[in-house]
Amino acid sequence: MADLKSYLNTQFGFSDFRPGQAEIIRAVLNGEDVLGVLPTGSGKTLCYQLPGRLLDGLVVVVEPLLALMEDQVARLQASGEKRVVSLSSRLLPADFNQVLNHLASEKFVFLAPETLGRPDVLAQLRRLAVSLFVVDEAHCISQWGPDFRPAYLQLGQFRRALQPGATLALTATAPLKVQQDIIQGLNLTQPKRLITSVDRPNLFMGFETVEGPKQKQARALAVVQQVQGPKILYFDRKKEAERYAQLLQAQGIAAAFYHAGLATLERDRIQRQFMANQLAVICATSAFGMGIDKPDVRLVLYLHLPESLEAYSQGIGRAGRDGQKSATLVLLEPNDLNRAGQFAASLPDQQLIETIFKHPSAYTDFDDPQVALIEAYIQAGFTQARVEAQLASRRGEKQKSFEAIAALATTSECKRTTLLRHFDSTGAAHTDFCCGALTAAVVAQLAPGAAVKPRQSQDWQQIFGRIFKQN
């Protein structure tokens, strides 16, 4: 342990490990398969970055999003590790092949499950010694795989083809059922489980119900004004995210909207502005947030019912990552429960599955998420029978997830205890900074957040003068 601490200090600049990190790292270095469940902001990436540098061979890291890959590549390079690349759709074909053909000289490679499943990528990786296979945000195997990214359901066979020295699955939220999905999905045999509590005592878990849409809007805008510091507002519809961003802008608040309908460069720009405190508020769908390591977010506000307790725990975990007191709030009107229940049932039925499997080429250009899901299964090589069984099972799981989050929203008991019970954790003592309505007394306890740094516009003379040092 002394040597690991010394390496931690010299290579990463930390004096000590956070809870769970040392145990995971030691197990990986011993060649053990590990499932690590660490709360948001607890330093999961160190659990593969540190041992990856010490192990011989290549470290293959599966990430769900391009932004996450690029962030991890940048962090490793900033820490002095230059043998790191990503294989992604942002590379031109010639550049992709160039990186792929020179993986033997790299230490870390980041890629999506769809990229890993490409025959040329798997073939090249099989020629190399893979010391560590990492699945970051491993709960996606359980939650994203069946819903819209079937490649996550194939990670077990990809892993078997690579035959890594050790496998590490990392996530922040995984109740027992999700843990089992991850272990089965990766075909792990009795992995070491290191599970820590999801409790974040510095986060206030607010829940409020209003009469209707007008009251919801008025309350949301008031809360945004009351809470100082960076804020994330979540919506289940793109148009609502855009509308609220415009409302906030009209009040003189630096706000922007973020959803999957934006171009990649635009999403990157908005994310960078938020990280740099040039934006005070992000109005977003669930497309925003995973891997966002901004320490001083002081409010995460949901204007709809999250789809599950796992999604809710992930979302609120983006607040207060610096350990300072921060607020979360789920703001609901009566119809929101009905809408969430309908959404939970929105998976392709057997008739649609049969129709598309008969003529898959006829539906490739359909702009419909259910059709796109079935097409993704077909492209991944799934049989019709397997798709029907997978979606039938998932439909039941989504219904249970809806019932669990609805129970949390409507219970009169302590919200924190209810949430922790779902994740197989012990309850916590109820305090005045625990859960309930987000009152003025609670807001008064919140830590201050960074002020917005307005971007200063410059005319072309100033810009050229600075470039050529003429002013």
What attributes characterize this protein structure?
471 residues, alpha/beta, Rossmann fold, 2 domains, seven-stranded parallel sheet, globular, DNA-binding, Helicase_C-like, P-loop_NTPase, hydrolase, RecQ family ATP-dependent DNA helicase
CATH-defined topology of the largest domain: Rossmann fold
Work out the radius of gyration.
Answer: 23 Å
**How much helicity do the residues have?**
40-55%
- Largest sheet composition: 7 strands, parallel
Number of E strands: 14
- Main-sheet strand order equals 3-4-2-5-6-1-7
- C-alpha termini separation: 55 Å
What shape does the CA trace take?
A: globular
**Chain-averaged pLDDT:** 88
Low-confidence stretches: none
Q: Please identify which CATH superfamily of the largest domain we are dealing with.
A: P-loop containing nucleotide triphosphate hydrolases
The CATH C-level name of the largest domain is Alpha Beta
CATH architecture of the largest domain: 3-Layer(aba) Sandwich
- Give the domain tally: 2
Oligomer: single chain
> Which percent band covers the strand fraction?
5-15%
The number of helical runs is: 21
